[in-house]
Amino acid sequence: MSTKSSVVNGGYPLHTFEEVEDIYKNYISSAQDQKRIREAYEFILDKHKNQFRKSGEPYYHHLVEVAYILAKLQCGPATIIAGLLHDVVEDTDVTVQQIEKKWGSEVAKIVDSLTKIQRLKLSKMKSEEFEAEDHRKIFIGMAKDIRVIIIKLADRLHNLRTLQSLSPERQQTICRETMDVFVPIAHRLGLDVIKSEMQDICLSYLEPEKFNEIKTLLSKKAKTMGKSLENLKKRIADILFEHHIPFDISSRVKSIFSIYEKMYVKGHPFEEIYDILALRIITETELQCYEILGLIHQTYVPVPGRFKDYIAMPKPNMYQSLHTSIISGDGNRYEVQIRTKEMDEIAETGVAAHWAYKEGSGYNSKQEQQEIEDKLHWFRDFVSMSSDAENETAKEYVENLTKDIFEANIYVFTPKGKVIELPAGSTPVDFAYRIHTKIGDTTTGSLVNGVMVPLNTVLSTGDMVEIKTSKTSSPSEGWLNFVKTSIARTSIKKYIAKKSAELVREEKIAKGKTSMIDAFHDRNISEEEMMELIDTKKVLDHFECQTVDDLFIAVSGRKPIPGAVIDFLGIKKPIVMPTGAKIKNIGQCCPVYCKGAGNIAISLANCCTPIPGDDIVGYITKGKGISVHRKNCPNIAHEKERLIEVFWRDDIESATYPVDIQIEAGDRPKLLLDIMSALSNQKISLSSIHARLNNLNTAVFNATILISDSKRLNDIFNVLLNVAGVYSVTRVIH
Question: In three state form, how does the secondary structure of 697-720 look?
Fold first, then answer.
C-alpha cells in the first residue's frame, strides 16, 4: 500500500514516489520498465540528497512532482525517467554520457535538451531583445522533441505551484515568462488542464486584486445558481435515461483567467458572461453526441448564435466537442458541452492524450514526432521556424512565432477537409506555404470556395482553398506586398535571393563571355579557339580563377579587362570591326549605343520590345545593322557568333516605348472597364487590346501599352494585379 501525500506549500499536495508508481503501473506493466523508473528515483535521491528548495523541502520532491504530472498524462517510461533526471546534470556532477550509459541514448537526449534549456537564466535586464533571446533558446530547445515540451511544462507547472518561497520580483518575472512562453505552447498542444492552472496562478501574482475580485464573484455566483444548476443536471439526466443513452454528467466552472479576459480584455461585465457555469456531458459515440444535442434543444430554448460544432470541425489542437447555450426553466443561461470520453481526454490533455503511452504498441519516438507534425500543422511550422531561427533576430523570431502560431485565428480548409489555421489577413499564398514550401514556390493561382480569385485575396474562416501549381512557376517579389505569415515571407525571400544569386552569376558569366568573344573576334579568333587558349591552368592561375566561368565573372567586373587576357596570351593580331551593315547617321534618336560601332544602324527588336532598364544584347543582322533584344529573348537564345554588347544611353530624352503584355483574370462583369480605368488613372497610353474567354472561365487580355522604362512597367504590373479578379500579368515575346 502506497504512502499518502501530505499538503504543503500553498495548499498543494506533496506526492510520494509510491503514489507516482500507483499511477504508471496501471498502464506500464513491464517489470523491466518499472525497475528502470525506480532506479531513476533512487538515483536522484542519492545525487540530490543534500539539496533543498527555497521552501525548505528536499529538492527531490520537485522531481517526484514532475514525475507525478507526467504519469497522470500517461507518458512513457523514457519520459518519466527523463522527468526525474531532468535537473541532475545541471545541479550535480553527473554527465549526459553517464545517463546514456545507464538509461540509453533516448533518455540522454531528452535530459540533454532539458539541461540546455535549464541553463538559460531568466533575464534580469529589461531589454526586449535580451528577453527575446532567452525565449528563442527555450523554444528551439523544446522544438526538438515533443517529450521535452511536456516535461518542461510539467516542470514549470510545479514551480508555479511553489512560488510562495520566492521574492515578489522573482515571482513576477517567472509568471510573465510563463505567460509569454509556456502558456501559448500548452494551449496549442491542447493541454488545457495545464494551461488553465498556469494562467490562474500567474494572474494571482500579476494581478492579485483582480484575481481575488473574480474569485469572490465566482463564489457568490456558485452559491446563488448552485441549486438551479443541480436541477438542470437532474432534468437532463432523466431525459437521457429515458432514451437509453449512456452518459456521465458533471458541472464545470469557467477558469478565473478566462473570466478575466472577458471582463478586462473584451470589456464584458461579469453579469453578462453566460458560460461561467456549464454542464459537461460525456457519452460513448459521436452519433449519441448529436442525439443528446437534439434532445436538449427539444427541451430548452437554445441561445441564438451560441452553437458550435467542434466535432465536425475540430480545433487545430485536436479539440472536439459540441457547445450550445440554453435558457433553463428559471431563466438562467448555461453552456452545455457534449463529447465522447476520448474527446474529453483530448480536451483536457490534448496531444498527451492522443499519444499516451500504450504498452506493446511498438513506440517509436521519431515516428511519434513525425505523426505530431503531420497532425498539428502549426507544430511542423514551429519546428521549421525554430530550425531557421539563426537567420533572424531573437525579437523577430519571437514576434513571428507569436503572430503566425500563437495568435492565429482564421480557420480554412483544404479540398480534403483538413483545417489550416492562419493569422488574420492571410492570403492563398500564405495558405500554400503553410501546406508545403514547394507548393508555395510553384503557386500559379487559387480557387476559394470554387471560384478563381487573385492571390492577394484575404481569407476568412470557413473558406475552402485550392491552390493551382506549375513546375515552371516561381514566387513573385510582388507577393511580399501582401503575405502575412513569416513562413511565407521567409520562403519567398529565400527563393528570390537564391534565384537572384544564380541569375546574377549567370548574367555575369554571359556578360564576361560576350566581352571576351568580341575582343577575340576583333583579332580574328573564333569562340572555339578562344576557349582552347584561356581554359588552361596557366591562364586561370595567373588571374586567380578556379574555372573559366570564374574568369568570365571577373571580366564582367572589368578585373581583368578582356585586353589584359589577350595581352597575357601575347596575341598581337589587328582589330577588325564588324562590316556589312548599312550605315545610317541616327544621331541621338536611338536610346541604345554600341561601343566602337560608329554609325552602324541600331534598332529595338519588335519580338521582345526592350525598354530602358531591361538587360539587353545586340544582334548583328545581315545588312540591317544591330537589332537590340532583351537577353532572355528566345529568338536569340541559340545565337553566339553574332551577339554584341550594347548599352542604354544615360542621356536619352523622356520617351515611351511599346510593350506587349498579357493579363489573365477570373471573368466577371465590368472587368475590362476596371482594367482600362486602372491604366488611365496611371496615365498609361493603350495602343491596342484584344480579349478572349477560355473554357476555364478565365479572361485573357493581350494588350500593347506605351511605357517609359522597366521600373515603371513593374509598377503598372502591381497596379493591374490589384484589380479585382486579376491574378497574372506577364510580358509577351513573339
Answer: CEEEEEEEEEECCHHHHHHHHHHH
